[in-house]
Write a structure and sequence with these properties.
Structural class: mainly alpha
Number of helices: 4
Distance between the termini: 95 Å
Radius of gyration: 38 Å
Strand content: under 5%
Helix content: 25-40%
Oligomer: single chain
């Protein structure tokens, strides 16, 4: 059994490179182009197609996720001016007596509620067949 050399382990740890690439590594050089295309209203699918035609290995999903990581400019929404409620000029009017409530009309006859399930034949309502 060999004894592990601590110096060789430290050197290996210092030289270690993760096998996974950083995310969006191939899209970072084209960041400004992607932002410009999105500002012009291009879809992520159109941007991915354009980049792929020019030799950048990407997909619509990758471009979409990359766009979501970009800082989004705050929407410059302007509020609609709120109209002030128009108040009627104060006019002295005679006080009217309260109106008696009108009797409510009869409620419409109840309609049986239809079931949302399958319709099953009621055997007692079927006519016997004569051979």
């Amino acid at each position: 059994m060999t004894v592990a050399d601590p110096n060789s382990i430290r050197q290996a740890a210092a030289e270690f490179q993760p096998s996974r690439r950083p995310r969006f590594q191939n899209l970072q050089p084209w960041r400004e182009v992607i932002i410009e295309l999105r500002a012009k209203g291009a879809s992520c699918e159109a941007i991915a197609g354009l980049l792929t035609r020019h030799g950048v290995k990407t997909s619509r999903t990758m471009v979409n996720e990359f766009v979501w990581t970009l800082p989004q400019p705050k929407a410059n929404r302007r509020r609609k001016p709120q109209l002030e409620p128009v108040t009627a000029p104060a006019v002295s009017s005679p006080i009217q007596p309260p109106v008696a409530p009108m009797p409510s009309p009869e409620p419409p006859p109840t309609v049986p509620v239809k079931s949302h399930g399958p319709r099953i034949a009621q055997v007692r309502m079927l006519k016997p067949q004569n051979p």
